[in-house]
Design a protein that fits this description.
Shape of chain B: globular
Helix content of chain A: 25-40%
Order of helices and strands of chain A: HHHHHEHEHEHEHEEEEEHEHEEHHH
Mean pLDDT of chain A: 95
Shape of chain A: globular
Bound molecules: pyridoxal-5'-phosphate
Radius of gyration of chain A: 27 Å
Distance between the termini of chain A: 38 Å
Largest interface: A-B, 212 and 214 residues
Low-confidence stretches of chain A: 526-530
Oligomer: heterodimer
Largest sheet of chain B: 7 strands, mixed
CATH class of one domain in chain A: Alpha Beta
Number of strands of chain A: 12
CATH topology of the largest domain in chain B: Aspartate Aminotransferase, domain 2
């Protein structure tokens, strides 16, 4: 029995909770927080800064004339503002986050600690090379891990996220093709691909030709060969995700790679799903020419509510010469940093540069910390556990939910379609929103596009057996509820989240993308009696 | 392994439930020839203590900016970040959340993005801002591609005051585009180039950095006017966002897209990344803008809430017709930026900017008093270029040996141009003390002596 501060025992009340509204709109620990612009003031500051002594500015005619109307909060108000906001967020640290294709695994705090060591966090990308040997050693050591884990001979470290890595790999491919004096304008992309694949190809001026999936959810080499024939001499590359976005390892990947190479084209592999196969297979052994690795997925760097990420691209020997600047050259026992074209040696023909500086150092330190912690044995175990967890969820649900490609093993994520919801009046979206009320972040929904009402569940290796059991039981309860016709549980869901369903149509039709001061007519006087 | 919750007996039970005898049966689709038994030539697992020891050893080989008089800028700046910022961004709910795809349970991230967009729009003097790019350099390349979409032209004119690595990023991508053309003007330390002469009817956009890579402040208004006469866009770039506290906003000078690096607020140097690209434009171009945007709406009960919106521009909906391929951006770095900006407010930022400017003036005067040293820029913010009577690279190396990190020799990024070989780009922020400046001057005298 809990005690109140007077030492008098409290007893649970007997009354049913009334529909309870509060004066503040708060719900106990769940508090409404206004925008900074509504609570901040222009005459306070959360940082103590003394005005400099009198001086004559040297701004020429460039001094700011226009206003800078941004209010401030003091430090305690700032803490409260963001802490309150943070409570409206779901996070891995608070619960299972089965967002397929996103690998929401545990983010070790050791990584955070190491990334903040001044020797990493407080060094400048352009301070003399002689004053930062340890930074280049980190990059080289991480590169070594990535090459060994993938069985490749080169890696471009600078790309800033997965899509940026795709762009890097495809630019290397384009450069290789240009160097050969060829004109290849087509990139083959399976229908199940992530949106960044076709977007990247198109960004670089390629035409995207899509490849249908066969009935078992994987790519048929003969479909690839057919497209190669239809576009004789024009195919630059295939972009294939492996394991694919249906959670399946492409069993014919070697035959596909061979066909692509025979046609004089390159094999780009989207490595977003590498977490399934670390220590189990090396992409280099599968004929891959370029593959990005999302350090923010497979190697546990935190996703931070949308980033930052890091997307190094491993390269085959054929593409290695075209890797972008900057790169590190191993010379005898020393590391040489190559930042400009004047430093190039014969055989090095970089296609250009992806970004200023050297890439996402903060993410490199975190990923290396993760790899060192796991070691080769731990990394393999992590992949095995990720795959085991996904399959455990699969067998726990496959009698009630529908697997589009039959009751076969999956890799690190399991894909269901919405056939099981047929005639229930409940959609994939409703189902996902009802999970929110149960305390779960929904799975990835409506992706990949190749199955109807897709639900892609990736539990990751970070979940315990008890956690998986509760998750499976919860989904089973939801499915049964839908089948019993309890549509109310779904239609309006979520009921218990900080917000009910949001009007996305209105948001897109009349975009309000920033706060603006209310005009006098916006401000309605509150009725006194309320 | 400390990060894995399954025990061996859990694994055995689960394999039985799944109906397989061994874990390898679940990997049966991997072609026989490619199946690995073991990862060779890599170390085995390590305890926290061992990992710390190893990484600390590597870190200790680097000279950290706070440990010496430090004057390197050129696109990344050493500022003091309030302790609150790093504490808040390490809140689990911010740190370990994904992109806010389910708005009902990610209002924290979404509200922060809405506030961030408002701050960026106000700072740059623009109408709308997106929810970040990877950094200033990639944002600049995206801005050029956006201008090509808006104008349906493909020639970009890049000022010689643009950061050389930003220029290379733009050139890299545009050189691969069918019909893409880039006119890059020669290095322009003093801001004297005649960029107006380069703008014609073929021009899609003009890219101008102010303060420039060399620290020079540039008048954007005439460039905007000329660009608009030729139906081209002005892309205004900055690498030092603190400058906007003191110099006129690019929006007020007629820029169509403003893009820059936001690292200076909230984000440590971290050897170049992760940083945060700020990207703002006019309302009329918003549907051509790259990247995610957060918008205000209401929920089923009429309560204000925020969502990612205008996603019909984006890769997950439009695929090969998307305005950009960006997916993951710089979420947590935006948050850090926004928290720091919130602590400062507009007037705090202006004060911070004045301190930076005052410190840079003191340093410029002190350096100009050294024999043979010339300060090239008359109007600058917290960064300027000096000419030394010796090879700049040698000077910087010698200064480093003397315990001073004295700036960036221009030739490191622009090698092989004799007229640049004696130039150093020097930055001074609020972190520099009178002692730091004195140490720099003394060391420079000695090195040049
Ligand atoms: C299969 C796949 N490819 C590519 C990407 C893009 O990666 P990023 O978000 O890091 O740019 C993702 C992640 O969202 C993905 O799931």
């Amino acid at each position: 029995m809990s005690m109140n501060t007077q030492g008098r025992p409290t007893a649970p009340g007997t009354a049913d909770a009334p529909v309870h509204t509060t004066f503040t709109g708060n719900k106990a620990l769940n508090m409404e927080e206004p925008l900074i612009f509504e609570i901040g003031r222009s005459d306070i500051c959360g940082v103590d800064l003394d005005e400099p002594e009198e001086f004559t500015p040297r701004l020429g005619s460039h001094a700011r004339q226009s206003g800078l109307d941004l209010p401030a909060l003091s430090e305690p108000e700032t803490m409260r503002h963001y802490v309150r906001m943070s409570r409206n967020n779901y996070a891995i640290d608070s619960g299972l986050y089965p967002l397929g294709s996103c690998t929401m695994k545990h983010n070790p705090r050791l990584n955070e600690k190491m990334a903040r060591v001044p020797g990493f966090a407080d060094v400048h990308p352009l301070q003399p090379v002689s004053t930062v040997p340890g930074a280049f050693e980190v990059i080289a050591e991480l590169a070594d891990w990535l090459m060994k884990l993938t069985g490749t001979s080169a890696v471009a470290m600078s790309p800033k996220a997965g899509a940026h890595g795709e762009q890097c790999g495809m630019m290397a491919i384009k450069k290789a093709i240009m160097e050969k004096g060829e004109d290849r304008s087509i990139v083959l992309v399976p229908e199940s691909a992530h949106g960044t694949n076709p977007a990247t190809a198109a960004l670089l001026g390629f035409k995207v030709v899509s490849i249908p999936a066969r009935d078992n959810g994987t790519v048929d080499p003969s479909a690839v060969i057919e497209k190669i024939k239809e576009n004789e001499g024009k195919v630059a590359a295939l972009m294939l995700t492996n394991p694919n976005t249906c959670g399946l390892f492409e069993p014919d990947i070697i035959a596909i790679a061979d066909a692509i190479h025979e046609a004089g084209a390159y094999f780009y592999c989207d490595g977003a799903n590498f977490n399934a196969i670390v220590g189990k297979a090396k992409p280099g052994d599968l004929g891959v020419d370029a593959m990005h690795i999302n350090l923010h997925k497979t190697f546990s760097t935190p996703h931070g509510g949308g980033g930052p990420g890091s997307g190094p691209v491993v390269l085959s020997e054929r593409l290695a010469p075209y890797a972008p600047l900057p790169f590190i050259r191993q010379k005898d026992d020393a590391l040489e940093v190559v930042e400009t074209e004047t430093q190039l040696e014969p055989g090095e023909v970089p296609f250009g540069r992806m970004t200023a500086f050297h890439g996402q150092m903060g993410m490199f330190v975190r990923a290396l910390s993760y790899m060192l912690s796991h070691g080769s044995d731990g990394l393999k175990q992590a992949s095995e556990d990720a795959v085991l967890n996904a399959n455990y969820v699969r067998v726990g649900l496959q009698d009630l939910m529908t697997l589009p490609y039959g009751e076969n093993p999956c890799m690190h994520e399991v894909l269901f379609d919405d056939t099981f919801l047929k005639d229930t009046g409940v959609t994939t979206l409703d189902f996902a929103k009802a999970m929110i009320d149960e305390g779960y972040h929904p799975m990835t929904m409506y992706f990949p596009l190749v199955v109807h009402g897709a639900m892609l569940i990736e539990p990751t290796e970070s979940e315990s057996l008890a956690s998986l059991d509760l998750f499976v039981a919860t989904l089973r309860d939801l499915v049964m509820s839908a089948k019993r016709g309890e549509t109310q549980r779904f239609e309006g869901a979520p009921y218990l989240a900080p917000r009910r369903r949001l009007d996305e149509t209105q948001a897109a039709r009349k975009p309000i993308l920033r706060w603006t001061p209310p005009t006098p007519t916006d401000v309605e006087p509150k009725a006194a009696a309320e | 392994m400390r990060y894995l919750p399954l025990s061996d007996s859990d694994r055995a039970n689960m394999l039985a439930q799944v109906g397989v005898g061994t874990i390898d049966e679940l990997f049966a689709d991997i072609p026989e020839s490619a199946r690995l038994k073991e990862l060779e030539n890599l170390p085995r697992r390590k305890s926290e203590m061992e990992v710390e020891r190893h990484l600390n050893k590597l870190a200790s080989k680097n000279t950290s900016a706070s440990s010496v008089p430090f004057f390197v800028g050129a696109g990344a700046y050493k500022h003091h970040v309030p302790s609150t910022v790093d504490h808040l961004i390490q809140r689990s709910e911010f740190l370990t959340s994904y992109t806010p795809y389910q708005p009902e349970i990610t209002q924290g991230t979404l509200q922060a993005l809405f506030e961030f967009q408002t701050q960026v729009a106000e700072l740059t003097g623009m109408e709308v801002a997106n929810a970040s790019m990877y950094d200033g350099s990639t944002g600049t390349a995206e801005a050029v591609l956006m201008a090509h979409r808006v104008t349906r032209k493909k020639k970009a004119v890049l000022s010689g005051g643009l950061h050389p690595q930003y220029r290379e990023v733009v050139e890299g991508i545009t050189s691969q585009l069918p019909g893409g053309e880039v006119v890059s003007l020669p290095a322009d330390p003093m801001g004297t180039e005649d960029i107006l002469a380069q703008i014609d009817d073929e021009t899609s956009c003009v890219v101008v950095q102010s303060p420039s890579f060399y620290g020079q402040l540039i008048d954007l208004k005439p460039i905007a006017d000329k660009a608009h006469q030729h139906k081209a866009l002005l892309i205004a770039v900055f690498t030092e966002v603190v400058s906007l506290g003191l110099i006129e906003s690019p929006g007020a000078q007629g820029a169509d897209i403003v893009v820059g690096e936001g690292q200076s607020l909230g984000n440590p140097l971290t050897f170049g990344g992760p940083y945060v690209g700020l990207f703002a434009t006019r309302q009329k171009y918003v549907r051509n803008m790259p990247g995610r945007v957060c918008g205000e709406t209401v929920d089923a009960e009429g309560k204000r809430g925020f969502v990612l919106t205008l996603s019909t521009r984006e890769q997950h909906i439009r695929r090969d017709k998307a305005t950009s391929n960006i997916c993951t951006n710089s979420g947590l770095c935006c948050l850090a930026f926004s928290i720091h900006m919130t602590l400062l407010g507009g007037s705090g930022l202006s004060r911070l900017a004045r301190i930076n400017h005052a410190n840079a003036i003191k340093l410029a005067d002190a350096l100009a008093a050294v024999d043979g040293v010339e300060v090239l820029n008359e109007a600058f913010f917290n960064e300027f270029t000096i000419k030394v009577p010796a090879n700049a690279n040698d000077v910087i190396e010698a200064l480093a040996v003397n315990g001073v990190l004295g700036g960036l020799p221009v030739s490191r990024l622009e090698p092989g141009q004799s007229e640049l070989e004696n130039l150093i780009v020097v930055a001074s922020t609020e972190v520099n003390t009178d002692e730091d400046r004195a140490a720099f001057v003394e060391a420079l005298k000695e090195v040049l002596g």
